[in-house]
């Protein structure tokens, strides 16, 4: 084989890893996925589906099936990483060209940098909470110097692992995986004890599927305000009084009325009540509950809604499926990467989504101040906030810190570090690329724009499916799983410049999704963007490359 080390496209960090140095076993890869999958979004996944009317059984089934489905292309796209020991930016040179690959790799990198900033801010809040619990101080709600210091501390912890390299990342994931699994088991144990048993805790989940205040129209065209507060283990409403602006006719909120049943129906003469508040005898006050309109029937969840949620769950790891070779290049064998990913990804997602469901269902009856379903502590931060013991708060925040760190390093650092390194291989190393990713995470100012940035990142992530379709078509159909390593590092070789076929296929896949975003009758194309974009890009690339191969052959 020709010497590729002199090529400007070569660097030690982007070089093929020799077979003898690919030492990650299936358990290392499984541990990596445990570390990545245990995060706040995983904990929250099922809650969104349950609030949309799905049962917890249906939510878990969709999560399990979706993650089995996404693991398949994850394993397929990880194949060249194992076979040749190359990262995603080098793998992508075959399909997109040595210059064209910067388009998908940098978009992937920017998405990861954005999530790095968001996750680092969340981790910093955990550090801040630990400090306050240990010192007995009361944390500030608004931005403060303490929060920025905590953010800086957690940022430096992330940078330390980046600077130590991929072996330190493997060490972090290997150690964090069993700790995170144990924490999940502890949370389930707490939930079962607090709710009076395992089955009883799950039974409480039904209370999370119904709104606490709805307006229903009667046969006489008048309206009823139907109130359904949370009931305790003995079947009694935890809220004892309510206040509705439509009933108090503009009076002060202090006008509360007694709650006399678990599903209370109050006749009202209008259908435009805004909000309802609940309280109990101890003075706990619920959040303002917007009154929902209802026909009186339960939410209907059709097959289309199931498909929408299934697509959303598949797209959860869409970006990782693109750059998975960044990780599988360290695997000992194809069998290890296949087993490691199937062991680590679907099972962990299913387990921690169940932990979120179970613990939140138990919290419904465990905490006296949870009066309505809307106030259930679905996210771990809200849950931790309900404990008074400093020791419990510190333990819980440490768990959150470990989960956030392990997710951030593996999912949001490796890909951008390699992408930035690929821009200038001779000048930017993996370490420097990782630091650049960390700096971009600061520049986006997640403390100000966290919600807005998250929405943008989800939008962009949904448009990256076409990249996966192109990579799979190129490797398995066009090149028959055979790549020339020398050509991938040659400036003026067959992969030089930009492969127009890949760019056209990428644009086609993205446009299909955007047409659904802009044209309401075709909205399903955007809603199912991962499938539609991936499929269209795969087909377009195959047609264009087939003609080129026939023409050049």
Per-chain topology:
Blueprint: H1 26-37, H2 40-51, H3 56-84, H4 88-96, H5 102-135, H6 145-164, H7 166-195, H8 198-203, E1 213-217, E2 223-227, E3 241-244, H9 245-248, E4 257-258, E5 264-268, E6 275-279, E7 289-290, E8 292-294, H10 303-314, H11 318-322, H12 325-328, H13 334-366, H14 380-384, H15 390-412, H16 414-423, H17 430-443, H18 446-462, H19 465-478, H20 485-488, H21 500-518, H22 523-527, H23 529-552
Parallel strand pairs: 1-8
Antiparallel strand pairs: 1-2, 2-5, 3-4, 3-6, 6-7
Helix pairs in contact: 1-7, 1-13, 1-15, 2-3, 2-13, 3-10, 3-13, 3-19, 4-19, 5-6, 5-15, 5-16, 5-17, 5-18, 6-17, 7-13, 7-15, 16-17, 19-21, 19-23, 21-23
Descriptive labels:
23 helices; 2 domains; 4-stranded antiparallel sheet; globular; mainly alpha; single chain; Hydantoin permease; 553 residues
């Amino acid at each position: 084989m020709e010497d590729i080390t002199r090529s400007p496209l070569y660097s030690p960090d982007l070089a093929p890893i020799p077979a003898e140095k690919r030492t990650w076993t299936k358990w290392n890869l499984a541990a990596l996925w445990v570390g990545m999958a245990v995060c706040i979004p995983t904990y929250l996944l099922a809650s969104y589906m349950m609030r949309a009317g799905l049962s917890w059984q249906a939510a878990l089934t969709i999560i399990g099936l979706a993650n089995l489905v996404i693991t398949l292309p994850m394993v397929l796209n990880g194949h060249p990483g194992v076979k040749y020991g190359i990262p995603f930016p080098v793998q992508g040179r075959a399909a997109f060209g040595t210059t064209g690959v910067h388009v998908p790799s940098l978009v992937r990198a920017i998405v990861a940098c954005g999530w790095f900033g968001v996750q680092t801010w969340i981790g910093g809040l955990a550090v801040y909470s630990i400090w306050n619990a240990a010192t007995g101080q009361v944390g500030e709600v608004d931005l403060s110097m303490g929060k920025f210091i905590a953010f800086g501390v957690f940022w430096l912890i992330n940078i330390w692992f980046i600077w130590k390299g991929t072996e330190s990342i493997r060490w972090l994931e290997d150690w964090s995986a069993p700790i995170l699994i144990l924490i999940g088991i502890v949370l389930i144990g707490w939930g079962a004890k607090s709710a009076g048993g395992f089955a009883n805790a799950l039974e409480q989940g039904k209370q999370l599927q119904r709104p606490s205040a709805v307006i229903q129209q009667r046969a006489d065209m008048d309206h009823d305000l139907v109130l359904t507060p949370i009931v305790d283990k003995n079947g009694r409403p935890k809220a004892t009084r309510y206040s509705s602006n439509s009933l108090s006719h503009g009076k002060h909120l202090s006008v509360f009325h007694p709650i006399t049943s678990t599903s209370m129906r109050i006749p009202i003469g209008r259908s435009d009540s805004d909000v309802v508040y609940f309280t109990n005898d101890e003075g706990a006050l619920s959040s303002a509950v917007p009154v929902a309109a209802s026909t009186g029937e339960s939410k209907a969840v059709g097959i289309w809604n199931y498909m929408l949620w299934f697509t959303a769950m598949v797209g959860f790891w869409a970006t990782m499926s693109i750059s998975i070779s960044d990780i599988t290049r360290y695997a000992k064998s194809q069998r290890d990467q296949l087993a490691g990913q199937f062991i680590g990804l679907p099972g962990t997602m299913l387990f921690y989504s169940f932990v979120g469901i179970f613990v939140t269902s138990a919290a419904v009856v465990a905490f006296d101040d949870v009066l309505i379903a809307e106030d259930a502590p679905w996210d771990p931060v809200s849950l931790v906030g309900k404990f008074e013991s400093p020791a419990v708060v510190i333990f819980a925040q440490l768990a959150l810190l470990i989960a956030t760190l392990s997710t951030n390093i593996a999912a949001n650092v490796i890909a951008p570090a390699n992408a930035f390194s690929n821009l200038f291989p001779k000048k930017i190393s993996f370490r420097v690329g990782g630091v650049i990713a960390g700096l971009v995470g600061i520049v986006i100012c997640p403390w100000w724009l966290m919600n807005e940035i998250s929405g943008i990142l989800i939008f962009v992530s949904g448009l990256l499916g076409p990249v996966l379709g192109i990579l799979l078509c190129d490797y398995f159909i066009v090149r028959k799983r055979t790549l020339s390593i020398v050509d991938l590092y040659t400036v003026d070789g067959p992969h030089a410049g930009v492969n127009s076929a890949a760019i056209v296929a990428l644009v086609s896949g993205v446009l299909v999704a955007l047409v659904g975003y802009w044209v309401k009758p075709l909205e399903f194309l955007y809603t199912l963007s991962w499938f539609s974009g991936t499929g269209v890009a795969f087909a377009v690339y195959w047609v264009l490359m087939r003609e080129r191969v026939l023409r050049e052959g």
